[in-house]
Design the sequence.
């Protein structure tokens, strides 16, 4: 299976940079795993907007998958209570 390229929006990068280092490391690891498997167990297709989300504890990673280009674009990263606003 081909590996996907990860693209992170400026907004998502800023959100990631604001998180504590321990959480940031956990989420970066999860994002890197998406390159190998863009639809891991527990990933959900979002309702009401495009994209998918994956959970890591209380944090969410929201992303789009472009299968034809083999690109995953990370749209947003953050705590579940803030991410869907």
Sequence:
């Amino acid at each position: 299976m081909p590996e996907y390229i990860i693209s992170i929006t400026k907004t998502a990068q800023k959100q990631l940079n604001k998180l504590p280092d321990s959480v940031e490391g956990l989420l970066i690891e999860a994002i890197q795993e998406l390159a190998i498997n863009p639809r891991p167990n527990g990933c959900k297709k979002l309702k009401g907007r495009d994209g998918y989300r994956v959970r890591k504890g209380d944090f969410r990673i929201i992303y789009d998958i472009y299968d034809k280009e083999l690109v995953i674009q990370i749209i947003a990263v953050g705590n579940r209570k803030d991410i869907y606003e």
